[in-house]
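Lesson 9: reading folded outputs for more than one chain in a single document. The general rule is that every protein is listed as its sequence immediately followed by its structure tokens, and records are never interleaved. Here is the first one.
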Amino acid sequence: MNVDELAAEFTREGFVVLRNVLDARQIAPINRAIERDLAACPAEWARFSDSFIQAVDLLPRCEEFDGLIENPVVLELLRQLLGSDVTFEELSVILRNPTKEGSDHKSWHRDIVRDFERRFEINAISVVYYLTDVTEQDHCFSIIPGTHERRAEMRPEDVVPGMEVDLLAPAGSAILFHARCLHSGKLKPESRQRRTVHLYYSKASLPRTSEWSSMPERLRGPLYTKAGRTDVMEGTGRKPRGLAAGLPLLEVLREAQRRAAVA
């Protein structure tokens, strides 16, 4: 499909799958950077469970992710959807390890803002790069189509099995989805480790959606105009204020999610 057709599909369903955006030569250095950072900076990786590990501020330590932020194929579609003032917001890496757990710890949710009455404040697009193959046997990303617009009245507790679409794709694929769409992780008992990189984009004219990812000096230009901005939406992207110094990253992230849920 061309970019106009992809944009139309995204507008209708709230997501689109771009296969083979990255090749093996592009994926390999990113995986090496993840392994290096896990070994060198273990405290920067939050372990929510045996199956869910996340790092939210890799850019100051890892230049290997820069090309994902500026991938021309993805940016062309983002500019079609968000306009010429598209801005980068956040990058994180999630590892989903093999597990016997039966459900994802987040369950069905919308990103950035958890308060159902504030859902239309969510105006960001997430890009998820698959660094490993995601087959029917693997942990996968599931989404409820249309819950960004025509089905935006749906609450997380309204979801029943069978409504969802499981997004299966080979390593190197990119998933674009509206952050207002209901989505969740789906755990599979025989899964291999799944590796994904999660990026968020919004518009320069809107408040920053997240302050978790630092933007080092090498990342400058129109795409990075949110660097240093202090007008941050109240939600999961806002770092909790008033916490004790030295609190582990896991506890800080959990407190951000708790505050977003009760805001």
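And here is the second record, again sequence then tokens.
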Amino acid sequence: MEYRQLGNSGLKVSEIALGSWLTYGKTVEDTTAEDCIRLAYEKGINFFDTANVYEQGQAERVLGKALKDYQRDQVVVATKVYFPMGDGPNDRGLSRKHIIEQCDKSLQRLDMDYIDLYQCHRFDSTVPLEETLMALDDLVKQGKVLYTGVSEWSGAQIEKAQAITDRRGLHKMISNQPVYNLLQRYIEAEILPVSESHGMGQIVFSPLAQGVLTGKYKPNGEIPEGSRAANKDISGFLNRYMDNETLEAVQKLDAIADQLDLSLVQLSLAWILRNPGISAAIIGASKPSQIEENVKASGIKLSDDVLDEIDNVLETIEHVRKR
């Protein structure tokens, strides 16, 4: 496993991180989740990402329990705040009240004294940005949070937040967590350069496009049983990837991977990590064997010829071409 600094901070994280969205505390039994977390640590993953809203706190509980086996200073734990955690008017968003209260509750569920990276899960246009940023800064000053970041913020929102941070002398946010993969590249136009100008690293999620970049879905083929596309509760996340044009391109990418003696998963992760603005790619794993395969992508360097070949395939996909 190789490690990168998270943005311009001194924090070093594994290139491959383990997430818990749609898996731990829900579709994966707790014992299997704990096996995945332990194997990830043994394979060099030190970065574990979750959120309070994932199964209303259950994912945090599962993660915290599994990480009890290891020294706290050897792991980097990230969680998030924003989405509703109750039915009350103050049980959501990025108000000072919600941030402070939810940080304490996340710490209780994780059974930890501090959170390494506390992230605003989305932007909240209903709350003054100064209020949000000052609440986060107070958590850092109190030692409950070491670093702060955001998820799925626009370039303009990041610019505005960092300007306030500079003006008020607050602790700077060090990361953004967006979707990024071979089939969804919107961050390249604005968010990557804006983030880099402010010293923020990207922790990208959905690096395998919800499983499409494993090659399991074939053009005009049947949906495999047990796959995410077969799960009606979450299949909507895959709709943008499931047209034949995209799936045919994925088969071509699989052929490129095969020529390099890589799996499509490893090629997809290595392609993401080619970019120095990416600090880590967050994988999801419902069984240990997936971690075994994914961690092998760390350190793979793709030649310019291979990158050009990949771009030629991607240019055939309409929604990628219009990114």
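What the second record shows: The beta strands are 3-5, 12-14, 16-18, 47-49, 76-81, 115-120, 145-151, 175-177, 201-204, 278-283.
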